[in-house]
Design goal:
314 residues, Rossmann fold, 2 domains, six-stranded parallel β-sheet, Spore protein YkvP/CgeB glycosyl transferase-like domain-containing protein, glycosyltransferase activity, YkvP/CgeB_Glyco_trans-like
Length: 314
């Protein structure tokens, strides 16, 4: 259960476990109105399906509260805790409440050891599970958005962004300005001040369709997954892993441990990003080979993690 239009981690976990994935948005408009609609839709779904276990993506805390209030106490609730539960100023106020519900009603799943330790400190049973390593999905070459055709023909660095508090967007734009020979593609709904500030070698395709996003990943020379926060795994990094792409990511302990020598690492400043992106473009073939080898290593660990989660969820 995910209160979002789509999320690769949620879909991947559901597919691997052979269970349904439900994505509920609540439509458009102010957050309180969206959450009210999502609550009603979730309540109807739970009443109709009567599940024995529900895995709930977190945040938002409202989704967890809905499942807790609208199911009998016999229903097990597993919180899939994203890093924002712990670090995002928008949601970390609800951390204690999140843990109290999961301690009473079920357990949690997180991406790594650091978040697992923080979760256990609240007395919550927890399993570690990184995002499911997906096999590359082949889609036709013709993009849904015709404007992407010229982008896909060139070499480029793909930087998927949510324009969140933990993304070094200013440093990224300065790095792009300092490396004019590199084409940079920044997806997501970019704020107007970001678009205005960007140099000419930065393309903003906006929020693209799922198939067009796959095309962008498939054709990218390098992918970049950047955060200023420790203990934060990057969905973009998992996508680079699945596709076997050269990756530039942040120099945090959790990312270095996960990707090992299969990625290049940066501090969240313009000079570091510029230097490592240029190096990744130059050595893209070598980095792709390392990423494919790393994927094979991690797939073995993932099967064990999935078996543990399946046992808990059954």
């Amino acid at each position: 259960m995910s209160w979002i239009g789509f999320h690769g981690r949620s879909a991947g976990i559901a597919k691997a476990l052979g269970i349904r994935s439900e994505f509920i948005t609540g439509g458009t408009g102010p957050a309180p109105l969206r959450y009210l609609r999502a609550w009603r839709e979730t309540a109807r779904l739970l009443k109709r399906e009567r599940p024995s276990t529900v895995i709930v993506m977190q945040p938002p805390i409202v989704a967890l509260l809905c499942v807790a209030f609208r199911t009998p106490r016999s229903v097990r609730i597993i919180g899939d805790l994203h890093t924002g539960v712990f670090t995002n100023p928008k949601w970390k106020w609800a951390l204690a409440l999140t843990m109290r519900i999961l301690r009473r009603r079920g357990s949690a799943v997180v991406t790594g050891a650091a978040l697992a330790e923080r979760t256990r400190a609240y007395g919550v049973d927890v399993l570690e599970l990184h995002d499911i390593i997906d096999e590359p999905i082949v889609v036709s070459d013709a993009p849904d958005d015709p404007k992407l055709a010229t982008v896909l023909e060139r070499e480029y660095v793909l930087v998927p962004l949510a324009y969140s508090f933990d993304e070094p967007v200013d440093a990224l734009l300065t790095a792009a300005e300092a490396a004019p020979e590199v084409n940079w593609v920044l997806t997501g709904r970019a704020p107007e001040h970001v678009v205005t500030r960007a140099p000419e070698n930065v393309v903003f395709p906006g929020f693209v369709s799922r198939d067009d996003y796959r095309r962008l990943v498939k054709s990218a020379t390098v992918m970049a997954a950047l955060t200023t926060q420790e203990d934060t795994m990057q969905r973009v990094g998992y996508e680079a892993l699945g596709e076997g792409k050269a990756l530039v990511t942040s120099s945090t302990a959790v990312l270095r441990e996960f990707f090992a020598d299969a990625a290049l690492y940066v501090t969240p400043d313009a000079l570091s990003i510029e230097k490592q992106v240029r190096e990744a473009v130059r050595t893209a073939q070598l980095l792709r080979q390392r990423m494919i080898a790393r994927r094979a290593e991690l797939e073995q660990t993932q099967q064990t993690q999935l078996a543990a989660l399946a046992a808990v969820a059954s």
